[in-house]
Amino acid sequence: MLEGNSWWSSDQNRRDVLKYSAAGGTALVAGCLGGSSSTDRFRVFDPQSSGTLPSERHCNPFNPSQRGTWHPGALIFDRPAIHSPAKDEVYPLVATDWEMTDDTTLEFTFSEDWTWHNGDQLVADDWVMQLQMALAILEYQAEDGERPHQFLESAEAPDERTARINLHDPLSETVAVQNAIADFVGDESRGVFTKHDDDQWSEWHSQVTEADDSEMETLLEELTTKSYPLLEDAVGNGPFQVADIGDNVMVFEKYEDHPNADNINFSEYSMHLYENNNPTQPYANDEVDAAHTQFPVEDDVKSQLPEGHTLIKESFSTNKLFSFNCGHDVSYDTPLSSANVRKAVCHVFDRDQVKQVLEGVNRMFDWPSCRVPGNVLDSGSHEAAEWIQDFTEYGQNDTERAAELLEREGFERDGGEWYTPDGDRFEIDVLGGTKRKEFGVLKDNLNEFGIATNQEEVDDATLSERRQNGEYDMMPDGSSANGVRAMWALDLVPGWLQQITHFDPEAEIPMPVGDPEGSSGTKTINVEEHIREWQITDDDQYHKELMWWWNQTVPQMETMYQPDAGAYNADNWELDAPDGIIDGTEDALYLIPKMDEATMEYTG
């Protein structure tokens, strides 16, 4: 998710303060930085408008603050290959080919056609330097006996055209490639940012890869805080290079020596900043030609949009969920530590009542909980849409089933009110969520069923602390849902989600899959190992059983999802690319000009 405005400070100089006209649009910067005409410039809304200032953005992928490695770094730097999380496909870019030379060795072949913007050849060593630095950082951060990276062991460049990745375990080729080109510790997946013969990168590389533990802390403090290079000084390798950096607009000009330059019929690409992160009005006013996110829009706004309004990135969405404290390895005593109790709460919930109060572009998640994006289930584009036909469906206000599950756990109902096995009134503490309509519906459903609720709002710091310590019963949550495999990343489910929902990583699931009564008994799985085996073997049975574990354990329950598309004005522009790029990547507006199998043309 995009950072907010936490990087703003009170002592910014006058040049760094964005200026706005009384009418609410941006005040144009003098000369070429203006955006009045798009005949030779593709104008894009900057999604970090209220965050990082252009003059402070840098292209150091290891420094998470004031970063420019995504916007606009993903435009001016190219990457070895492109992974589409929504389609689970990989497309070549700088690396024209790859192969598993043996079970644990993956080799990429780099094109000879790419150069840095100063004319130097882009070589495999440039990317390998970045990988080696990331792996060295992970090695320092790893606990004794743990792998620094779950799959990648090391990287080397035997020659200028070859990048060799050594793996801990055998992996399928697609999964190996996805892991090699993914983020490790920063934004590395968005480009090759390190130039192997650049003095600063060369010095940092040798220091980080050769330092002992006593030296690493100081080195990492420097590497992760330095703004090198600043965006205005960055030498990239993508289809556009830095031309001018203003207060509220960044302009990039076509790099004529890029291998795809002849397929680009416009000379400039600009990114425009506004006072908030919502592009709807500037887009409707023809101040920008496109935006990465915040679409579709509410019905009453649609009439304001350009006649040629066209969505991209339609496979992306965000989920809204109920999160439960599963109680594993925490001292807080929660009645929701039982999966049957969590399932009972989910059964009491009435989705139909939420449909009456839906706001904006939220859509109901009308399927069994399964940790698959709603867009995927809606389109039926993955086998998971078939697998879940027999899964337990919650949200039907099935109070009879809820009562049965509670009674199994020793809860009793007296005078219409439920009591815990210890004889206490069954009350659920909800942490936050007072503005979430579905939580209001759930509270009413629970109260009517005889379960008391107490809702408490706290500040962000307190919420984070209590969530991590497992000091709550339920809370709202939201997350991106941008791909079937991406939803099960090792650092996401057994990492982050386990830390906030506190589920037991060793779980028994009823078998066969689809039968909650377990007519064939149960199967014990380790969630992390199951995900790893899925990655190694690419066997969908692991995925199917993980979905069933999610459905029967319900550490979270999906309640709604919201499409998270981008848009462009097809009255003046034509974008053509494989579905996996135009609808399946976050960076579609940056990636299309880079690829020989995709085109972006001015047609107005």
Plain-language structure description:
By secondary structure, this protein is an alpha+beta fold. The strands form eight sheets. The protein has a seven-stranded mixed beta sheet. A four-stranded antiparallel beta sheet has the order 4-5-7-6, with helices on one face. Strands 14-22-13-19 form a four-stranded antiparallel beta sheet. Mean pLDDT is 91; it is low at 1-37. Belongs to the bacterial solute-binding protein 5 family. Residues 89-491 form the Solute-binding protein family domain. One of its GO terms (molecular function) is peptide transmembrane transporter activity.
- Strand percentage lies at 15-25%
- Give the class from helix and strand content and strand pairing: alpha+beta
> What is the radius of gyration?
26 Å
Q: What coarse outline follows from CA principal-axis ratios?
A: globular
| Total helical segments | 19
Look at the structure and give the mean pLDDT. 91
Q: How does the major sheet shape up? A: 7 strands, mixed
Strand order in the largest sheet: 8-9-10-1-11-23-12
Low-confidence spans: pLDDT under 50, at least 5 residues?
1-37
Number of strands: 25
How much helix, percentage-wise, in residues? 25-40%
User: What is the first-to-last residue Cα distance?
Assistant: 34 Å
Protein name: Twin-arginine translocation signal domain-containing protein
Family: Belongs to the bacterial solute-binding protein 5 family.
Keywords: Plasmid, Signal, Transport
GO molecular function: peptide transmembrane transporter activity
